[in-house]
Write a structure and sequence with these properties.
Radius of gyration: 29 Å
Low-confidence stretches: 286-323
Distance between the termini: 52 Å
Number of helices: 30
Shape: globular
Number of strands: 25
């Protein structure tokens, strides 16, 4: 039994839990509140994609006479072939039945319907990715065939990572969603509610908190809340997460509170703590907890300033508790006297990131998530393949200027980085808890300085981890920094190129140029770090010519191999972005509607009058081919069924961007790090014109190569001593100026030595300037 139940409703990811409830449970641990969490989505998927359930689905399709297309007729005809391996396929995708890969990769093991029509494009990818990944891809296509059958014959709202998403998109009024909830529960609803009821009987919570990150989770959250209200009316229900944070900031429809008692906004830690006190401990407090501040902040290196801050916060909390006569809330909507009211009457500040604890993945069915590969592309598969522990390097965005982004909201606006040592402490705790060494840092944009500090801390502790994150393609990602990130376990980054046009990038206030993006993606790629780029079309004032030129830029980036994956998004006007707040400054005219429920996406007209929708298919089709390493020689016109202008971008534009000479200057504050091993040393002499010169031959070995350099003995001995101190394991990253001072205390002209041919070779072998 637990007083508090945290739920992620269907559906998010198949391969790993969405992290919000784990973040909250980790925080609740620090204040002594015991909670249970569940990912209802993965439990429903596993029940749905089982042989016993699909037997019912096939029977139901015949009973309802809902099989209409030739594709689903084929699937039904082959139902025995689809049913027989289904449970084994799920086990394989869970990593529990790996020998099945050899069977799956044979041509006649899995039945094939329309999803297998793309098989002729697979040869490129699986030469690189291997048998297990090829089997995962084939098994994914098999599940997608069954998904198509569900959508056509059983439930058109189904999707692997979303359910009834349309009902949550641009839902300015609650009417359509409310009306849908008056209908009989669907087959998938009934599966969901049966699993939920089992959990309610076991946990017996007093308060249930639904974390709803996306529109595709909203309907299921409301359906579950409706069931709870009808059958367990004594339980209080709250909703929070990404969707409410963005969309439900102006809710006024009282019917919403027939389902939920509370809607919380933005950071959830303090709002949920106060709800817990109000609901679960109503006689012990007046909306505050005298012991609510965690007593064991998880910062091993916590300094006195942090301690003083914690003590000040505790004193403040006790003071509020003694003087408050009404229940305290933080950024919470609720129904009061028949009206929707917004309560933010606590004086307590939100918790700092060092206080929120380590995410706790206990209770979640970590062994049961399924890894799928939807597209045969190594970078693209990261979102769906593998179990990733999710963490955040920093709250908010350190840039916080992009004009299309919701930068007015706290989750982006308030930037607060986490110390690298604390981050790695949390990584080690998660490895111990989950047994997984893979990490996805889900930042808005991870700051380069913090990524550098994180990498050095990982190397200092000699951890073996794999990690990836989201970034801005900014100039601080030098070649040497990329090598350092790779050495620490970074395998991939994703970032926004958005519109590949310098004019539009300036209008976006992205702070980058196309040339800079090209150079940074080259730096990552040369370090064997994969790159995914978010791409945008239809930005206000964007012309047809700029869209075509943007596609040509993207083509060149892929052809040169400095971007491996991408995704085109059509620009959406959002209420909380600079464009949404000041539309006339960007040449758009919003079509505002009355808001009683959700408010984010806004219909608008662009002064150019261009129908950007027409580019959608061609842009995505071309990108799909580029991601598979094909289609580079095709004329851009071939991707579209309407006339487009010729690109004005020269055929070698991106290549020319990469040929900009690198600067040989080094900042005095640059940190110098040695990633290699100490060399084998051979001492010898060389006589020339009567002068005997003592030399050292240094032979360096790394995992794949060797390097031999020769230096004068005195400088060589200094170098050997210095390299030992420059290793990350020492925790002493010396600056360039400190190195220069030390060298010149014994010798002359450090620059002459540092920029010599021998030292340049060593810099290519692991001597980094950061």
């Amino acid at each position: 039994m637990k007083d508090l139940l945290l739920i992620t409703p269907p559906f998010t990811q198949l391969n790993t839990p969405y992290p919000a409830t784990a973040y909250l449970k980790g925080f609740l641990n620090t204040i002594g509140v015991s909670a249970f969490q569940m990912d209802l989505g993965i439990e429903v998927i596993l029940e749905l994609f089982s042989k016993k359930t699909f037997e019912k689905l096939f029977d139901l399709a015949i009973e309802n006479d809902s099989i209409s297309t030739e594709n689903c007729q084929r699937i039904y005809t082959l139902k025995a072939d689809y049913l027989q391996p289904l449970d084994a396929i799920i086990l394989f995708l869970q990593g529990k039945n790996q020998t099945l890969a050899r069977q799956i990769c044979t041509t006649n093991f899995l039945p094939q319907a329309s999803r297998f029509e793309q098989l002729e494009d697979m040869d490129w990818a699986f030469g690189e990715m291997g048998m297990q990944d090829k089997a995962k891809h084939l098994a994914t296509l098999y599940l997608e065939d069954l998904s198509d059958f569900i959508i056509e014959c059983i439930d058109p709202n189904f999707g692997f990572s979303r359910y009834a998403e349309r009902l949550g998109q641009s839902a300015n009024a609650f009417d359509e969603l409310y009306d849908s909830l008056q209908n009989k529960p669907t087959f998938i609803d009934n599966l969901t509610l049966a699993i939920l009821e089992d959990k309610l009987k076991t946990v017996q919570p007093k308060l249930i908190c639904f974390s709803v990150p996306f529109p595709g989770n909203l309907y299921s959250a409301f359906r579950c809340a409706q069931f709870i209200k009808a059958n367990y009316p004594e339980i209080k229900i709250a909703i929070g997460g990404g969707f409410p944070n963005t969309e439900l900031r102006q809710v006024t429809d009282t019917r919403v509170f027939d389902f939920f008692d509370f809607i919380t906004l933005d950071d959830g830690e303090l709002p949920i703590e106060l709800l817990y006190q109000n609901v679960c401990q109503p006689h012990n407090n007046k909306g505050t907890a005298g012991t609510d501040l965690q007593n064991n902040i998880e910062n091993k290196d916590q300094n006195s300033n942090n301690t003083n801050h914690a003590e000040r916060s505790r004193s403040t909390t006790i003071h509020v508790g003694h003087n408050s006569k009404e229940k305290q809330y933080k950024r919470t909507f609720l129904l009061e006297d028949g009206k929707v009211v917004y309560k933010n009457n606590t004086t307590r500040p939100d918790y700092k990131q060092l206080q929120v604890g380590t995410p706790d993945y206990s209770d979640l069915l970590l062994e049961d998530y399924i890894s799928v590969i939807e597209i045969a592309n190594p970078m693209h598969s990261l979102w769906s393949d593998g179990r990733w522990n999710k963490l955040t390097m920093a709250h908010g965005c350190y840039w916080g200027k992009c004009t299309f982004c919701d930068i007015s909201l706290d989750y982006i606006k308030i930037y607060e980085p986490i110390a690298a040592a604390l981050l790695v402490d949390r990584m080690e705790q998660l490895i111990a808890q989950t047994g997984e060494n893979g990490f996805h840092f889900v930042d808005e944009a991870a700051p380069p300085a913090l990524m550098k500090a994180l990498a050095l801390e990982i190397l200092k502790r000699q951890l073996t981890v794999t990690w990836w994150t989201n970034i801005r393609f900014e100039k601080n990602f030098t070649q040497d920094l990329c090598y350092l990130l790779k050495a620490s376990g970074c395998i991939a980054v994703s970032g926004g190129l958005e519109v590949a046009s310098d004019r539009l990038l300036k209008l976006i206030d992205k702070g980058v140029t196309v040339e800079q993006v090209a150079q940074v993606t080259r730096n990552f790629t040369q370090a064997n770090i994969m790159v995914h780029s978010y791409l945008m079309y239809g930005y206000p004032t964007q012309t047809v010519q700029e869209t075509v030129d943007s596609l040509e830029m993207v083509r060149q980036l892929f052809e040169l191999g400095i971007i491996q994956s991408g995704f085109w998004h059509q620009f959406a006007l959002t209420a909380h972005s600079p464009i949404g707040l000041n539309p006339s400054d960007y040449g758009v005219t919003p079509n505002y509607k009355s808001i009683t429920f959700a408010n984010n996406d806004i219909d608008f007209t662009d002064k150019t009058g261009i129908d950007h929708n027409q580019f959608s298919f061609g842009l995505k089709k071309s990108l799909f081919n580029f991601m598979h390493g094909i289609g580079f020689d095709m004329d851009l016109q071939e991707w579209f069924d309407f006339d487009i202008p010729q690109s004005t971008i020269t055929p070698y534009y991106i290549e020319d961007c990469l040929n900009t000479p690198a600067s040989l200057t080094t900042k005095p504050t640059a940190k110098i790090v040695w990633l290699g091993h100490l060399p084998l040393v051979r001492e010898y002499t060389k006589t020339k014109k009567g002068f005997v010169n003592e030399l050292l031959e240094l032979t360096f070995h790394d995992k794949t190569d060797r390097l031999q350099i020769t230096v004068n003995k005195p400088e060589g001995e200094w170098l050997l001593d210095t390299l030992e101190t420059l290793k990350p394991t020492t925790g002493q990253a010396l600056s360039f100026s400190a190195l220069k001072k030390d060298f010149e205390s014994q010798f002359e002209d450090f620059e002459l030595f540092w920029f010599s041919k021998q030292m340049q070779k060593l810099k290519d072998f692991g001597l980094l300037q950061l």
